[in-house]
Amino acid sequence: MNRDLTVGDPQTVLWKFCMPLFGSIIFQQLYNIADSLIAGKFIGENALAAVGNSYEITLIFIAFAFGCNMGCSVVVSRLFGAKDYRAMKTAVYTACIFSGIVCIVLMLVGILGSGVLLELIRTPDEVFADSKLYLDIYAWGLPFVFFYNIATGIFSALGDSKTPLYFLAVSSTANIAVDIWFVQAFQMGVAGVAWATFLCQGISCVLAMVVVFRRLTKIPLKGKEKTAIFDAGLLRQIVIIAVPSILQQSFISMGNIIIQGIINGFGAPVMAGYSAAVKLNNLVITSFTTLGNGISNYTAQNLGANKPDRVRAGFRIGIKLVWMLSLPLCLLYFFGGSIVLRLFLDEPTQLALQTGITYLKILSPFYFVVSAKLIADGILRGAGRMKSFMITTFTDLILRVVLAYAFSRTVLGATGIWCAWPVGWCIATTLSLMFYRHGTWMKAEKE
Predict the structure, then answer these.
(1) What is the overall mean pLDDT for the chain?
(2) Which of 103, 187, 295, 342 is the most buried (most CB within 10 A)?
């Protein structure tokens, strides 16, 4: 169901819009961690290391899909808020064409260059074959990843956060079942994990796109003029949002790959411990990012409707939401890290387990900081202030990569790598909040 986010009490509107996002977060994380969980519990520590190693490369592909999602979502939100439905439909078609072209290029890179990418991150010999097998299968499923992201972006732009929840609930649950089936019943190993993801993402993508286009046909248009399937001006607006979002996620992924290369130098047990812990950390960060994306849609709709005064209220409500999420997760990871890590590690070595525990204890207290950054970033992106958005992202990334390398060369060893995260988060959050405070929405509320 489409929802206008420009009318009604901002707190009520955002709560109704964001509550299904909480559910989506849970099922999205089930999707993200299922492969590692099944690999670690039913195949072995090396399989977990292989999937975790490949995961850092798949994040680059996901970065492009996410960028296309945000470019489409923000522009469609703005046009939906302005009630310009003809241009809105054209924006959807244009985004699909743009995303399809980007997807084809990335498929070629993934299929032809997976071995080179794995060599670049110094993948150990004992996990190289499984890592490459996982990546090769994943690359063939990229069209499903891209167009599913486009579909969810459109749903969010229309103020509908429930439909993506339904798709995620079914597909993520099915993914776990099919993972176990392929690995246990057919003894397919890492290939079974990859094919299960391919199959479930494919079905979800097709169904989501069918629902999207049915939804669009029900939105009435004035006049008899046909809706164009492509518009260069709208493509430019989409690219202005998409490219910085792609660069943001890509450079974060590249930074993670560099960090993964540093970690790989400490051996398979440290790799396995990090692989399990980083999945748990990404669960939190992706949760904050999802809520930040919701704030982007809220901001874009209200600015499209020329209601900037509602944006500041949206920021305050967004902070409340992410801090409510931060508190239990921080407590769980800090005091119960060993328990949740054992979900991924079957009979782990002491070094692998201790690596994961240390990682979670260092990062979890700073979730309150990074969550504020991602809400502020959501507003900046929804307002189209991509220069400010990029500055905060690159500041965080560069600090984390440089400090991870520098600290790992000290007596801290691998622990020094984890210490780089909070430093980058604190400085980047300060910048994000400064940019937010200088937005036009602040002036509007004062007036």
Answers:
(1) 86
(2) 295
Name the DSSP letter for residue 1: -
Q: For residues 125 and 47, is the Cβ–Cβ distance under 8 A?
A: no
Q: Report DSSP state, residue 364.
A: G
For the stretch 145-154, pLDDT in tens is 999 989 988 9
Query: By the 8 A CB rule, do 201 and 141 touch?
Result: yes
| 8 A C-beta contact, residue 293 and residue 25 | no
CA distance 447 to 445: 5
Q: How far apart are CA 396 and CA 252, in angstroms?
A: 9
Please, is 222 exposed, middle or buried when counting C-beta atoms within 10 Å of its C-beta (0-12, 13-18, 19+)? exposed
Angle at 350 between CA 399 and CA 413, to 5 degrees: 30
Q: How far from chain centre, in Å, is Cα 401?
A: 19
φ/ψ of 7, rounded to 5, equals -125, 155
Residues, the chain, total? 447
Element (H, E) at 8: none
Which segments of 82-124 does DSSP mark as H helices, in order? 85-120
Site of tokens 């509908």: 160
CB under 8 A, 24+ apart: contacts of 257-262:
257/56, 257/57, 257/60, 257/120, 257/121, 258/121, 258/401, 258/404, 258/405, 259/400, 259/401, 259/404, 259/417, 260/53, 260/56, 260/121, 261/120, 261/121, 261/122, 262/404, 262/405, 262/408, 262/417
Structure tokens, 439: 């937005």
Cα radius of gyration (the chain): 21
- 8-state DSSP, 183: I
Neighbours of 185 (CB within 10 A): 9
Q: Do 438 and 417 contact (CB within 8 A), yes or no?
A: no
* Choice among 21-25, 167-171, 352-356 with the minimum mean pLDDT: 21-25
